[in-house]
Amino acid sequence: MSAHSDSAAPSPVRLADYRPTDYLIDTVDLDFRLDATATRVVSRLRLRPNPAGRAGAPLVLDGGDLKPLRASLDNLPLDLAAVATPHRLTIANPPQRPFTLEVETELDPSSNTQLEGLYRSNGTFCTQCEAEGFRRITYYLDRPDVMAVFTTRVEAAKDEAPILLSNGNPVETGSSGPGRHYAIWHDPHPKPCYLFALVGGDLGWIEEEFTTGSGRKVKLAIYVEKGKEHRAHYAMESLIHAMRWDEFVYGREYDLDVFNIVAVSDFTMGAMENKGLNIFNDKYILAIAETATDADYAHIESVVAHEYFHNWTGNRITCRDWFQLCLKEGLTVYRDQEFSGDQRSRAVQRITDVRALRAAQFPEDAGPLAHNVRPDTYREINNFYTATVYEKGAEIIRMLRALIGHDAYHAGMALYFERFDGKAATIEDFLSCFAESSGRDLGDFAQWYAQAGTPRVKVSGAYDSEAKTYQLSLSQHIPPTPGQAEKKPLPMPIRIGLIGRDGGEIPLVQDHAQNWREEKFGVFELAGPERTIVFKNVPTPPVASVNRRFSAAVILEQQLSEDDLLLLMAHDSDPFNKWQAAQSFATRLMIRSTAAIRAGEMPAFSEKFALALADALEHYETDPAFAAQMAALPTENDLARDIGTDVDPEAIFLARKALRDGVGQLLSHRLLALYDKLQSDAPYSPDAASAGRRALRNACLDLYAAGNHADGSEIALAQFQHATNMTDKMGALSVLSRLPTPTREKALEFFYRAHCDEPLIIDKWFSLQATIPEPDTLARVKRLTKVHAFNIATPNRVYALIGAFANANPLCFNDLSGDGYQFVADLALQADGVNPQVAARLLSAFRSWRNLEARRGELAEQALRKVLDASKLSPDLRDIAQRALG
Ligand SMILES: [Zn+2]
C-alpha cells in the first residue's frame, strides 16, 4: 500500500487562522470488529452546532485514506458517493440542533506500515492517533479542541485476541458468537480523538493495585509479549513512583479505576499517553539485567513517568491546537526531568538533560530547521515533534520557575489545573496563571515561545582591589533565524557564584539587594540587552561561576583562563559548572587541535587538564555517576556545534582522538587502578549509585584503551566474557568495537549469536557497528541492511542502524566522497514508501549541512536535492527536504 497520496504538498496551516469548529461532538460510540485485513468500525457521533461557530455552516469531517461502507444521519441513510471521499465527509446542510451521524468504515490493519491509525505489531492490534491518526480509523473533527466522551466496544476472535482494551474503565465483557468475544470500555473524561486507543491481542501481563492519596483503588497492568512478563517489573515500579510523586509534588491524583500500559515492538515514537491506556515502544518497558543497560533503565523510568504525567498535563488539560504542542510536551518533559532528578542524582540528571538539549536542540535552533517553541505555521505537524518543542519547551518552564520562585510556580500550576481542567488551552492561558500567582507581567517572558534561536550571553568581570568590589557584566544577543531577522531581548535567570583563589565560595553582597530571590539563591535576572552587577566585600580576585545548574538555556561566552577552569573543576560547589569547566577545557583543547591538524601541525595537549580530570574521577565516592559524566569528553558533534562554521568532521575526529589517546596514555596507571577498585561482585541492581559505579568503571576502561590498545583490548575482552549484565557487556563491546582487531569481529559475532532472538539487543549490535569510526563502516552498514534481521518497516531497527550512522558517526556520514550523504538520502527515500515519519526523522540528520566546509556542504546539498527531485515523496519528507534547503 502506498504510504501517503502523492498529491501536491499540503498548504501551510497558520496559528493566526485558528477559529473554533462549527460543530461540537458530545459523545462517540465506537464499535470495532477486529480482523487482520478487514476490520469494521462503526462510529456513532452525537453532534450539535457550536455556539461559538458559524451558524448553518457545512459539517466537514477529516478522513485519512478511508474506505466508507455506509453513513446515516439521524438514522436516515446518506448517499455515500455524494458525501464521502477517502479524505473527507461533508454534510452540506446539517440540522441546527443535536443530531447523530453514523458511519461504517473498513480498515486493513495488516498493510498499515506507516503505524498511524489502527495497525498490527507482531500480531497485536494497536493504535497510534497523535497527531492525526484517528482520521485513518473513521471520519472525525480530528483536532485537539474537540473533546468528547468515548464509549468503545471491541470484538475479536477469542484465540487471536483474548485481551481487548480501550480507554477509560471496563464496563462489560461477553461472548458474541462462536469463538468470538467482546469488551466495552467507557471513558468518562471528555478527550480529543488523538488520545483514543485500542489494543487487541494475545499478551501476557503483570498487575499491581495502587491506592491514591484519597483512597481510590486503581488496578495497574502492564501488557507485554508473552514470556516477557518478568521484564516489566521495573516499569511497574517506575509507574508507582511516578504516581506517588505527582500526588506529592503537584497534588495530582489518578482518576480512573484502571491504568493500562501495553508494550509493542513496532512504534514510530517513544510512547503515547492515551487516556488510561498508554501504548509504548517496548524498548521503554522491557528490562532485566541480562538484556538492558543502566541507560535503558533510566530511560524506562523517565518515559513511563512522562506518559503518566500527561494524564494531567496533556489529557485533562489538552492543547487548543497543534501549535500549542509545547503546552503539554514542554511542561511534561520538565515534570519528568524533575521526577528523575528526585529519583537519582539531581546534578547528573541536569547534566544529562543539558547534554541532550545541546546535542539535539541547539543544532536545530542554529540551522535551517529552526522554529519557535510555538510555531506560527506548519505544513506537516508530525515534523514538529522536535527537540525545540520538547526540550527547549521544558527549559522555558524551568526558567519561568527560577524567575518567579518555587511558591509562585506551584500556586500558578494549581491555578492552571483548577481553571483549565477539561479544557483545551493555549500558552496564553497557561502563562496567565503564573502572571496571577506571581503578580508579574509575563509579556516579555512569552517571547521565549515566539522567537527561535539560542541566545548568546556574554560575560565579563572586573575586580577593583582597592574598593574590594567585583563588577560582572552580562549582555545578550540572539542570532537571526529563518524568517526572523530581528530579535527582542529575553528575560532569563542567571544563577551566579563567586569562587576565591582558595577554592572557597565568596558570599554575594550587593549595595541594594534587588529582591529576595537574588539574595537567597544567587539568581539574577537579565531582562534587557545588558546588565551590570557589583558585588561588595570581595577580598581577592574571584572566578565567576555563571549560569549555575544551566539556569538559562543559552550559550555562554565567558573568557576564563586555563587556571580559572582548573579552579572551577576542582572547587566549584555547583556540580553542573564543575562538569562544565572540564567540558570547556577539553573543548578548547580540541578546537585548538582541530585547527592545528588542518594546518598540518601537531594537536594540542595539556597535562594539567589530564591530571585534574584524574583527580575528579578519583573523588567519585559522593556521586560516582557524576564522576562518570566528568570522564565523558565532549562528542564530535559537540565540537562541530561549537566551531559553528567551516566544519571539518575529519579534523574534529582526529583532534578528539588525540586528546583521548593522550589522556589514556598519561593516566594509564590511575585509570587502571580505578577500574580495578570499582570492580564489584554484588548482584546487579539498577539503582543510581550502582549504575554510577558501572558507568565510571566503563569510562575508565574506555579512556585506558584509547591510550593502550593491546592491553585495553585484552581487558575489554575479559570483561565482555565475564559480564553478568548488559551494561558491562555493552561497555566492553563498545571499547572492542573501536579497536580494529580480529577480536572485535569475533566478539561481535559471538554477541549476535548469543542474542539473535532479542530484537532490542540486536538493535544495540546494529548501532555499535554503525558508529565505528573507520573507512569501511559504510560498507559494513550497507551489508547490514541486507541481513535478515534488518527490516525497513521496523522503526527501532532503522533508527538503530541508519539513524546511528547518520547522527552518531560524523566521520563516516560526512566522508569526503559524499557516499555517506547519498546512502542516508537513499535510505530516507526507501523508508518514505513505508513510514514517512521515520523517513523524515532520518533526513533531519542533514540539519547542520550549511555549517560544513565547502566541499562537504556541496555534497550534502546534492543529496538533499536528490531527495527533493524524487518522483514520489510524502508531505513529511518533502517538508524536511524543502526546509533544510530553504
Ligand atoms: Zn509527551
Concise account of the structure shown:
The chain has about 900 residues and is α+β, with helices and mostly antiparallel strands.
Percentage of residues in helical conformation: 40-55%
What small molecules accompany the polymer chains? zinc ion
Mean pLDDT: 96
Structure annotation, total helices: 29
Backbone structural class = alpha+beta
Radius of gyration: 28 Å
Distance between the termini: 31 Å
Strand order of the largest sheet: 6-5-9-3-2-12-15-14
Q: What is the 3D form?
A: globular
Sheet with most strands: 8 strands, mixed
Low-confidence stretches: 1-8
Description:
The protein is α+β, with helices and mostly antiparallel strands. The strands form 8 sheets. Strands 6-5-9-3-2-12-15-14 form an 8-stranded mixed sheet, with no helix packed on it. A 5-stranded mixed sheet has the order 17-18-19-21-20, with helices on one face. The longest helix has 24 residues. The structure holds zinc ion. The site of zinc ion has 4 residues, from helix 4.
State the main characteristics:
single chain; 886 residues; alpha+beta; 8-stranded mixed sheet; 33 strands; 42% helix; disordered N terminus; binds zinc ion
Spell out the blueprint of helices and strands:
Layout: E1 13-14, E2 23-33, E3 39-49, E4 59-62, E5 68-73, E6 76-77, H1 80-83, E7 84-85, E8 88-91, E9 99-107, E10 117-121, E11 124-128, E12 148-157, E13 163-166, E14 169-175, E15 180-191, E16 198-201, E17 204-211, E18 217-224, H2 233-250, E19 258-264, E20 271-272, E21 277-281, H3 294-309, E22 318-319, H4 325-343, H5 346-365, E23 377-378, H6 387-404, H7 406-420, E24 424-425, H8 427-438, H9 447-450, E25 456-464, E26 469-477, E27 492-499, E28 505-506, E29 509-510, H10 516-521, E30 523-526, E31 530-536, E32 543-546, E33 555-558, H11 562-571, H12 575-598, H13 607-618, H14 624-631, H15 636-643, H16 649-666, H17 668-677, H18 688-707, H19 709-722, H20 726-737, H21 742-755, H22 759-770, H23 777-786, H24 795-808, H25 810-813, H26 819-832, H27 836-843, H28 854-869, H29 875-885
Helix pairs in contact: 2-3, 3-4, 4-5, 4-6, 5-6, 6-7, 7-8, 11-12, 12-16, 13-14, 14-18, 16-18, 17-18, 18-19, 18-20, 19-20, 21-22, 22-24, 26-27, 26-28, 27-29, 28-29
The protein binds zinc ion.
